[in-house]
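User: We ran a pulldown and think these components assemble together. Before we commit to crystallization trials, I'd like a predicted model of the whole complex to look at. Sequences follow.
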Amino acid sequence: MPNDSREKILRRIREALSVTAPARHLAHGGDQAAGHPPQDWLPDVPESPDALVALFEKNSRDLKTDVRRCADPAAVAAELATLAREEGWKSVASHHFALGDDAMRSLGLPALLTDAPYEKAALERCDVGISGCDVLVAQTGGIVVTSASAGGRALSVLPPHHIVIATRRQLVGDLSDAFDAVRAAYGSIPSFLSFITGPSRTGDIERILVLGAHGPKKLTVLLLETP
Amino acid sequence: MKISLFIPCFIDQYYPGAGIGAVKILEKLGQEVVYPESQTCCGQPAFNSGYWDEARAVAETMLDAFRDADVVVGVSGSCGAMLKVFYPELFHGQPREAEAKALAEKTHEFSSFLVNVLEVGDLGASLPAKATFHDGCHGLRELGIKREPRELLRHVRGLELVEMGEAETCCGFGGTFSVKFPEISTAMGEVKCASILETGADLIISNDSSCLMQIQGLFDRQGNKIRSMHLAEVLANF
Amino acid sequence: MPAEAAQFHHDAERLTHDLRHRSLIQKALGGYYVKRDEQKAKYTSWQMARASAAAAKYEAVNHLDTYLLEFTAKLEARGTKVFWAADGAEAAAYIASVAREAEVKRIIKSKTMTGEEIHLGQALEKAGLEVVESDLGEFIVQLREEPPYHIVFPSMHLTRGEISETFEKMLGSAPADTPEELTMIARDVMRMKYCQADMGISGANFAVAETGHISITENEGNARLSTTLPKVLVSIVGIEKVVPKLDDLAVLLPMLATAGAGQNMTCYNTLLGGPREPGETDGPEEFHVVLLDNRRTALLADAEQRDALHCIRCGACLNVCPIFKNIGGHSYGTTYQGPIGSVITPHLRGLQSWKHLSFSSSLCGACSEACPVKIDLHHHLLQNRRNAIAQRPVWWEKPIFIGFAWFMRRPALYRMAAPMLRLGGPILHAIRGKFFDPARLWTGTRDLPPAPAQSFKEFWRARYAKR
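Assistant: Here's a predicted model for the assembly, 932 residues in total across the polymer chains.
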């Protein structure tokens, strides 16, 4: 392996920084921003749990995420069965997670479970990936996944339809809250974390929106009311 | 308070009406107006071209001309910005830096001076026309002038003011840019002219005559009869 | 005139006359302005958010050594290899050696302007590797052998018809006339490429020092796939991408989405800190982060313009720049287009060869106004001009401005100008636009105003001499 230029670059940096740069961003009222956490300036996030859910639903539906409230685990299983029929699923990918195990059993379809080593090509052939998530973010209408919560790094992005089973209790206000929640759960931020905010999209052709560019064309959130 | 007029070189030579209108308005408001005759140019052409030594040499004549002024009022957003925003930078670390900062401090653009310092709105003007206002970029972004011209024009009897889609888009003049990159400048001007035409206005108003030189120059070449006036000329119709 | 400047003039001349291009770009950006304004209005304070974002980047860039070392240590603790590359050649050589050691044949790339800057794709192809661009816009321009048109929207200049033709010619696909159909063609091609690739290459939008993660922002999901499926992952990251704390992303990620595309949040924002951990069943087995200098330290050393390194590559300045909209991205002839490109390219690639980018601006300031991290872009263009002229005055301009200064310091002489203009005016008007018209750079396309009956100075003398 070639030797790197760490010391050379650090020397150049230190020499450059011997001269102070003007802090122009503090002008024109910019200094007033300093006393506040940056999140204060973002779009408002309500306090009440019901308002938070409503905001999440609105923001995620604006991005064409399909959000369905489910009163209980039986309702989740029923939604999955309906989707399986409507979309003609032949093979399903998933992983072991508390909210998903019973639902997967009821579904009764051959399932590739990513908890054990698997073939990429086999996952690519699955019609749907069903996973859990860490948190739901109301401000953006998105979800947060890590390897532990969503069956690895590929399950939530390779199959053309991604279904997330989550509960209201997983809902947080903004990205800062999301980071706090993940740190609380794992002690630190894992090697892989992704904010997923809607189905995959592109505007690269004539700036016209198309869904399902490379990632899932459909994102469904089955939101359990309880616990 | 004596008002010392700052009349940029191209207004002096090509658009004296803007300066004459300003005199008329300020005198109607009972203000004492003086014009230091030794002023010539603010130095912006040299400054924008990167020749700061030469720009400074010219700018010193402004420092001299306005040394004893209480307050300086100019009828151009771009030259006003030169004095107010760029003189401190031009004279940074130079012998006359304090004077440059003092001049910047006491310089005002005309519409800003009327609305924010003299606190007037209705000048008793009337001009029946359908008009649209072009925001000169320096006035808009260096001096923060947006509300003031519209506040003044609101009171002009018979004037219907329509906003164009590209009001805040640069007309393409940019000083020496207009002749260094004439094809880009012209394209930008054409976009501006198209936006003006969409309003159906027969009069273009601006607080920057250099922009009007660009816009009117293009319309004249197209054979379009639309006219343009500096804000001060419009407001002086009483 | 340097070759780069001559090329620029030539391309700009051509594009400014291309009304089809002008209207295409206007249309492409029209929807963006509306969505961006709607999104900005939702912020409690967009202006305060800008100040916050700027403060985070100011802290990062002005303590760059500290944060880079923290970032590196945290990554290495997770088994990531960090390579510090002084320039593009070093970076490409390292990545090629990683590929060789891992017996890589096929590479899939997600969008990286830093990779584009050092022509990484071409360097690796020369080394005998297959390199496929997975981002739709990049894939399209790669097939057309064109550079990206815009740092965020690489194929903004193309119509669906042109893209269909390219796909038919290069992929043998059937003609398609909707963006949806065309996207699906690219999607199908890519699916197999993701699964077959041995190495993924990505860039990064941010490098979080506190936790040792790179952060990648995208809408398509191609970066998620490129950084997950292949067994080796290399991410190339400009040293300026550092942010001090993870929480800084809580405001930077939404602002990047809003300023860049008028979105609330971009579809996928992914943090990567290490290769596959024990217990993980997927993810790359090897993860390399290449930190690239390539003259960023030169820009760092220019304290007046150091804030140009705050750039989060959102593209907002391009989207509002009337020069960009009229000359198009390719006219710049370099990786970074628009206002940010005009500011940093003279630093990264040579002041005298690239100063024309800083001169070709009307200094309207729309860019500085749009920048989410408050970079003083249009003033930096002025500073580049001053620096270029101080280093090497233009031989015929210098005497003109010396003459200009001499003349303007003599009010008595200046007062003589007005009558001369009135005399010469009609003559100038008669010959306007002709090759011997001294004012033809103006009068080629525009009329000059008529000289008035009296100048302001003459008016003042006449009126106030009487008193």
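The beta strands of chain B are 2-6, 32-34, 71-74, 107-109, 126-134, 157-161, 203-206, 227-230. That may be worth checking against your pulldown data before setting up trials.

User: Thanks, that helps.
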